[in-house]
Amino acid sequence: MKLGGVNLQIINGREVSNNIREDLQIKINELKEKGIVPGLSVIIVGENPASQSYVRSKDKACKKLGMKSEVHSLDKDVSESELLDLIEKLNNDDTIHGILVQLPLPAHIDEKKVIEKISIEKDVDGFHPINAGKLLVGEDTFIPCTPHGIIKLIESNDIDVEGKRVVVLGRSNIVGKPISLLLLQKNATVTICHSRTKNLKEITKEADILVAAIGKANFVKRDMVKKGATVIDVGINRVDGKLAGDVDFEDVKETVGHITPVPGGVGPMTITMLIYNTVKSAMKVKGGK
Ligand SMILES: NC(=O)C1=CN([C@@H]2O[C@H](COP(=O)(O)OP(=O)(O)OC[C@H]3O[C@@H](n4cnc5c(N)ncnc54)[C@H](OP(=O)(O)O)[C@@H]3O)[C@@H](O)[C@H]2O)C=CC1
Ligand SMILES: Nc1nc(=O)c2c([nH]1)NC[C@@H]1CN(c3ccc(C(=O)N[C@@H](CCC(=O)O)C(=O)O)cc3)C=[N+]21
């Protein structure tokens, strides 16, 4: 799309995702020949419609690839110990290679305790502190799915990272911190911004690559981005029943170089990299036939 002198490239997350899923299909078939069916178990507590929709897409994607996929839907009032017991059971279940507990959890459940209960070998979200620590020091681990998906999107669109100025909006353990580490590993110069950052606009305007992960619909406007920049929109917000990213797509489209749309950008990649991690976990299983 040619707009206002900048050649806008919309990064197609569904297409990149499908290409990676084709490669994963081959690996899954090879595993099945050895008698190993990669298995993912997702636990969801309560009835958040957005979470349920994500869990459904993931379940569908796994089944399409011939994986085992199970969803445990627990009542919002379930006790912490019941949840921990279920995780313990799944930790010991040889047919399950990945365990994901959908976040956030209700306030009466200690998120930290739950994450730390998941076996580090099955922690396909990569949220366990040991796995997060491995990412920090650059050891092999389960890379958190959304940041890993962002890296794949950047690579598949031949976007140069080395030496580039990257600004990440958001510092959560799920997105902001791990994507900052991964881009640092790729030799970017990374700045992390958050709700206390002063002069935000001046900082974001410097970015060659801007990653927005704050959870505020249409927050990033034209005057916050540099001409020709790559903008990765992680936000998933619901506005009047419609999905909106953290970036005001219509407002920035004449300024940016590359942009990920919402939906169809980072979201599908998150599910693909979750499958990637589950397959990776299943490949570590010894034996088979
Ligand atoms: N596409 C996908 O696959 C996924 C999408 N998401 C979406 O990404 C978004 C972020 O998720 P997540 O990281 O879990 O969110 P969190 O709520 O955990 O973190 C939000 C971060 O944004 C910062 N922030 C909030 N407001 C501002 C502001 N006005 N200016 C600068 N920084 C701000 C917060 O700062 P502080 O730390 O100071 O509070 C915090 O660090 C959400 O919309 C979520 O739905 C999340 C996961 C996967
Ligand atoms: N333990 C845990 N791990 C997570 O990875 C995790 C989580 N908890 N809690 C919630 C967030 C959010 N998240 C999304 C994943 C896919 C889409 C996705 O596929 N989005 C589609 C659209 C989906 C729709 O239409 O609703 C898209 O952007 O094209 C969105 C959001 C994972 N999260």
Automatic annotation (TrEMBL):
Assigned keywords, A-Z: Amino-acid biosynthesis, Histidine biosynthesis, Hydrolase, Methionine biosynthesis, Multifunctional enzyme, NADP, One-carbon metabolism, Oxidoreductase, Purine biosynthesis
One GO molecular-function entry: methylenetetrahydrofolate dehydrogenase (NADP+) activity
Its EC number(s): 1.5.1.5, 3.5.4.9
Pathway: One-carbon metabolism; tetrahydrofolate interconversion
PROSITE patterns xrefs: THF_DHG_CYH_1, THF_DHG_CYH_2
Keyword Amino-acid biosynthesis found: yes
Binding annotation for NADP(+): 170-172, 236
Name of one Pfam family that matches: THF_DHG_CYH_C
GO cellular component entries: cytosol
GO biological process terms on file: L-histidine biosynthetic process; methionine biosynthetic process; purine nucleotide biosynthetic process; tetrahydrofolate interconversion
Domain Tetrahydrofolate dehydrogenase/cyclohydrolase catalytic: 11-125
CDD domains linked to this entry: NAD_bind_m-THF_DH_Cyclohyd
Catalytic reactions on record: (6R)-5,10-methenyltetrahydrofolate + H2O = (6R)-10-formyltetrahydrofolate + H(+); (6R)-5,10-methylene-5,6,7,8-tetrahydrofolate + NADP(+) = (6R)-5,10-methenyltetrahydrofolate + NADPH
Residue span, Tetrahydrofolate dehydrogenase/cyclohydrolase NAD(P)-binding domain: 144-284
Its biological purpose: Catalyzes the oxidation of 5,10-methylenetetrahydrofolate to 5,10-methenyltetrahydrofolate and then the hydrolysis of 5,10-methenyltetrahydrofolate to 10-formyltetrahydrofolate.
Subunit text: Homodimer.
Family membership: Belongs to the tetrahydrofolate dehydrogenase/cyclohydrolase family.
Name this polypeptide is given: Bifunctional protein FolD
Organism of origin: Senegalia massiliensis
Lineage, uppermost ranks: Bacteria, Bacillati, Bacillota, Clostridia, Eubacteriales
Encoding gene, per UniProt annotation: folD
